[in-house]
Amino acid sequence: MIVLNDRIRIDDIRRIVPGIRLKIPLFSSYVAAGFPSPAENYIEKVCDLNDLCILNAEATYFVRVGSDSMSGDRIEAGDILVVDCSLEPVGGRIVVVWLNGDHVVKRIRFAGEMIVLESSNPKYLPIYVHPGEDFKVFGVVTRVIMKPV
Predict the structure, then answer these.
(1) 144: part of which helix (H) or strand (E)?
(2) Which residue has the higher pLDDT, 92 or 34?
(3) What is the pTM of this model?
(4) Mean pLDDT confidence for 115-127
(5) What is the average per-residue pLDDT within 92-115?
(6) What is 10-16+57-145's CATH topology?
(7) 88 phi and psi, to 5 degrees?
(8) NCBIfam families from the xrefs (predicted)?
(9) CB 80 within 8 A of CB 70
(10) Residues 6+ away with beta carbon under 8 Å from 54
(11) Rounded to whole angstroms, how far apart are CA atoms 61 and 80?
(12) Residue 25: CB partners within 8 Å, gap ≥ 6?
């Protein structure tokens, strides 16, 4: 079945509030998938999620994903995208775009004067954006914040 509606609701786009800092402990060693070592409990420093996830606070938004159109890239409905509006979209990057009245998340490709927006879920068809359409790149996805399953 082909699905056409995979828009992001405007209520699911939030601007980053510069100045709010959240410091969390950062352990100096990697987490083992096997047995834990009691010597690996040393906290090296405190880090801030802003420093890890945000390059340009003035141009960064959190966007909640509203569909499964990018599930092949492990982006699921309900995940939060960190979107930087100051970055130039490069072919192959995942972007949030404004297209004909809706925000959507897709992988962008350039084919001459035409832009192709691709989903990573095969049940969604590619979208071909022709010159003159109501289209604008909102921003480039820099991080995905997801809940573990």
Answers:
(1) strand 135-145
(2) 92
(3) 0.74
(4) 94
(5) 92
(6) Umud Fragment, subunit A (2.10.109)
(7) -75, 135
(8) PRK10276.1 (NF007621)
(9) no
(10) 16, 60, 82, 84, 142
(11) 10
(12) 43, 46
Contact at 8 Å (CB) between 78 and 26?
Answer: no
Catalytic pick among 67, 71, 106, 119: 106
- As a whole number, the mean pLDDT across the chain is 81
Domain boundaries in the chain? 10-16+57-145, 23-53
Q: Give residues with Cβ within 8 angstroms of 135, minimum separation 6.
A: 97, 98, 99, 100, 115, 129
Instruction: Give the integer Cα–Cα distance in Å for 79 and 110.
Output: 26
Q: Is 69 a known active-site residue? A: yes
**In 3-state terms, the chain is what percent helix, strand and coil (to 5)?**
10, 40, 50
What burial class does residue 29 get, using C-beta atoms within 10 Å of its C-beta: 0-12 exposed, 13-18 middle, 19+ buried? exposed
Using the CB atoms, write b or e for 4-14: b if 16+ within 10 Å.
eebbbeeebbe
Annotation says 29 is catalytic: no
From 23, 28, 45, 69, active-site residue: 69
Predicted confidence at residue 4, as pLDDT, reads: 47
